[in-house]
Write a structure and sequence with these properties.
alpha/beta; seven-stranded parallel β-sheet; about 700 residues; binds magnesium ion; binds adenosine-5'-diphosphate; six-stranded parallel β-sheet
Length: about 700
């Protein structure tokens, strides 16, 4: 296959240029063709100007002229610089072309009466228009009427010029013209009215028109998203086929009892999510579902219902949380919900005594324990279930895809898998990252909870904020103070949790029980502090973001976030979800040094917006599509053209068509040939994972 040939097979590429190209990640001809010009940076040379019509504004323009005179000159003074001036003319006027440095060798060789096609930056000189020349060519009358058209601009490295690149690219394209197989199914191309591959390739590098450039881009964006989705679908098909799924019965006695015991009724959002989950569980096909719900949207009770359903069908369920604190909290909640139904629950964490652990493992293996809640400790080799039919992970963003799979592998069946996340992932991203998962999304909160009032203060108001803190404590509420760092700051304007803790304890909060919580404490210390805070003994908790995840203390009514400018919007939203869990009006105070107006500006949206999904999208926009929280981090290939924020509609369409194409695992053969035709193996990677 010609595209696998090294770039040195092209004219003008020797060892030196090959090494330069290597730095751009280009080693084969295929890599070269995959190296698209910079987005939105094409230069428009499709209009040929007459000399009198050139705008003397420093922009690049294209014109032709006949050589009238060539002379060398130099600029005097300290920065003495030699240059060559070529004066050209057409029927409308004269212009002086300036050539500097290495450009001069070529310029000195042009002869009077030759006609040049010039791209240059035109400005006004002392007596006439002048142009610094970007590039020029001898004009061949055979080209009459032809202009350089729309020219690509590549993001290059030293040693390679735009002209080099264009020349390499033309050679590669002519190879492609000699025979390039399609890389998308024919019917998909037809259905979506996409450009043929070769046409798209030619137009992405050397567009015939802006319209064709747009169509070329559309084709490649679609192609990326389509192949990615095919890969994800294949991955999920492959995974399902191995073990038999579990078909749970209709909702029975225990789920009914649990619903009856609840002190509230489910919201319509919760009901909708529960219906979807319940139906999935009744299907022999294993569930792969993500339950997205903003902080406090009430996901826990949904997981309890699912666990009760597994148990009432005679199976076991487990719930894995990313931290010990959260696992314990879930365990307490599950005990409360499930033990009255006659179900046996147990908790498995790293902190257990050997004998306790042994007993629990025995209970799980014998099927005596119905529900296991725990941390990563659940994943350990010797943890075996008798009949696990449901594996739930909470706050999935803290777990890798492998760990999710590892948990599911604890069963001789293919268990139903439910992933709960409070990290609002924009739907578009979820489709990519979890393309193989179905999504249930719960928006909003259960009734009766007042939205957290969010205030924005700068450093000079610190005393006021501290007084507010004291006021809250005096009326019996509790508070969090969240800091980005644990120890003494190595960054200006950033106060560490330790500093703040000392400052409060010895200052405004003298005599008030406070504690310092951070990730470097041992599991047991953390648990003790958390327990003290939950029971109300500790009034103010100074913490790093370890509290981000799921902790529930309804009496906490104030959260102060130090150096709020260092956090993402969605992260702050998650943090503030720790307050406003009770009856009282709660507050979140964002403190910033106030030395950077932009970062303060960015935080303003938090005062009015209470929609985690929207905030996550804002974050994504701010961070730019290029570096969204990396697909690579999820084991997926990078996208060159597609932008998952902008291309939502294409994602949806690509997913639909990918589903049609990949109805079953056998259909992989159809896609395989297209993967082989790709210039790189980015997409092959997901199929092989
Ligand atoms: P999260 O989605 O963040 O895990 P939780 O499940 O912890 O949220 O729920 C937050 C709080 O809301 C809990 O105290 C829970 O008991 C309560 N809650 C859940 N569902 C409802 C409801 N339908 N009506 C009233 N309160 C509810
Ligand atoms: Mg939760």
């Amino acid at each position: 296959m010609w595209w696998k040939e090294p770039v040195t097979s092209l004219k003008g590429i020797g060892a030196k240029k090959a090494a330069d190209l290597e730095r751009l990640g280009i080693s084969s001809v295929g890599d070269l063709l995959n190296f698209y010009p910079r987005q939105d940076a094409y230069s428009d040379y499709s209009k040929l100007n007459t000399i009198n019509a050139l705008a003397a504004d420093g922009t690049k323009q294209v014109f032709k002229g006949t050589v009238y005179r060539v002379r060398d000159s130099f600029r005097q003074g300290r920065g003495r610089q030699n240059f060559t001036v070529v004066t050209v003319r057409d029927a409308t006027g004269y212009i002086d072309l300036y050539f500097f440095g290495a450009q001069r060798y070529g310029a000195r060789k042009v002869k009077p009466d030759e006609t040049l096609l010039v791209i240059g930056r035109v400005t006004r000189g002392r007596t006439s228009k002048i142009a610094s020349v970007v590039s020029y060519d001898l004009w061949d009358d055979g080209d009459a009427g032809k202009t350089p058209g729309i020219q690509p601009v590549y993001a290059l490295t030293e040693g390679i010029t735009q002209k080099n690149m264009a020349s390499f690219m033309r050679q590669a394209l002519s190879l492609a013209e000699g025979g390039i197989p399609e890389s998308l199914p024919e019917d998909v191309i037809k259905k979506c009215a996409l450009l043929e591959r070769i046409t798209a390739l030619k137009n992405i590098h050397f567009p015939e028109s802006w319209g064709m450039l747009k169509k070329a881009r559309e084709r490649f964006i679609f192609e990326e998203l389509f192949l990615l989705q095919c890969g994800l679908i294949y991955y999920s098909l492959k995974r399902q086929e191995v073990r038999q799924g579990v078909k749970h019965g209709h909702d029975g006695e225990k789920t009914a009892q649990l619903l009856k015991n609840l002190p509230f009724s489910l919201t319509p959002e919760q009901n909708g999510a529960w219906q979807e989950i319940s139906l999935d569980m009744q299907n022999i096909k294993p569930m792969h579902r993500i339950l997205q719900g903003d902080v406090g949207s009430g996901k826990t009770v949904i997981s309890a219902l699912a666990l009760a359903k597994a148990a009432e069908n005679g199976y076991q369920g487990c719930l894995m949380a990313p931290t010990e604190i959260l696992a314990m909290q879930h365990y307490e909640t599950m005990k409360e919900y499930l033990e009255p139904l006659g179900l046996k629950t147990a908790v498995l964490t790293g902190g257990l005594k050997a004998c306790e652990r042994k007993e629990i493992l025995a209970g799980l293996a014998a099927g005596k324990i119905d529900i296991a809640v725990g941390t990563h400790a659940l994943l350990e080799e010797d943890v075996k279930f008798d009949a696990l039919s449901l594996a739930i992970t909470d706050e999935q963003h803290r777990f890798g895809v492998d760990q999710r799979a590892q948990l599911a592998n604890k069963s001789s069946f293919a268990p139903d898998v439910l992933v709960m996340t409070a990290t609002p992932i924009p739907r578009t991203l979820a489709l990519i990252v979890y393309g193989d998962l179905d999504i249930s999304a719960m928006k909003g909160r259960p009734p009766g909870r007042k939205p957290v009032q969010t205030l924005l203060y700068t450093e000079e108001k610190r005393d006021e904020v501290y007084n507010g803190l004291l006021r809250q404590v005096n009326v019996g509420s509790q508070a969090y103070v969240v800091c980005p760092l644990i120890e003494a700051p190595d960054v200006m304007n950033t106060r560490s949790a330790e500093t703040i803790y000392e400052e409060l304890k010895n200052g405004v909060l003298k005599g008030v029980p406070c504690a310092l919580l951070h990730g470097r404490l041992k599991g047991q210390e953390k648990d003790e502090i958390m327990a003290g805070f939950a029971e109300g003994e500790i009034k103010v908790l100074v913490a790093t973001t370890v509290i981000e995840v799921g902790v529930n203390v309804p009496n906490a009514a104030l959260m102060v976030i130090e150096n709020a400018e260092r956090f993402g919007l969605a992260q702050i939203h998650q943090l503030r979800g720790r307050v406003g869990r009770g009856e009282k009006q709660s507050f979140c105070v964002l403190l910033t040094p106030g030395d950077s107006p932009e970062s303060t500006e960015r935080l303003k949206v938090l005062r009015t917006c209470d929609d985690g999904f929207r905030l996550a999208e804002e974050d994504l926009k701010l961070r730019g599509a290029g570096q969204l929280f990396g697909l690579r981090q999820h084991g997926l290939p990078d996208l060159h053209m597609a932008d998952i924020l902008r291309d939502t509609d294409v994602i949806v369409k690509a997913r639909r068509l990918a589903k049609e194409t990949m109805r079953n695992e056998g259909d992989y053969g159809k896609i395989r040939q297209f993967l082989d035709m790709q210039f790189d193996d980015r997409f092959q990677m997901i199929f092989n994972s």
